[in-house]
Amino acid sequence: MADLKTVKEELAEVEQALSSIALGGQSYTIGSRKLTRADYSALLARKKELQAALASEGDTSLFDNTFVAYFDGR
Q1: H-type alpha helices, 1-74
Q2: Cβ 11 vs Cβ 27: under 8 Å
């Protein structure tokens, strides 16, 4: 399993990359050099994966204080 801090850091990096694309565009040219950023849809998919990983790693109380009872027929 991934370390929780690592997932948070990668999520922050992906969000930064998404906002760079949203603000500055997918690609640009300066002189004879051309820069193309990562694919926006691939970054969105990775963001969803990281958010799901973060949610599953978090402290959830979904099954806290849950007990199982087995009743055999009489």
Answers
A1: 4-24, 40-57
A2: no
Retrieve residue 66's tokens: 């849950």
Report the pLDDT value the prediction gives residue 2, as an integer from 0 to 100: 58
Q: What angle do CA 47, 6, 16 make, to 5 degrees?
A: 45
Residue 20, token pair as written in the block: 């760079």
Domain ranges, ordered by start, for the chain: 4-57
Alpha helices in 25-63 (DSSP H): 40-57
Between the alpha carbon of residue 39 and those of residues 23, 49, 52, 59, 70, the distances in Å are 14, 16, 20, 32, 52
Report pTM. Answer: 0.64
> CB within 8 A of 2, min separation 6: which ones?
53, 57
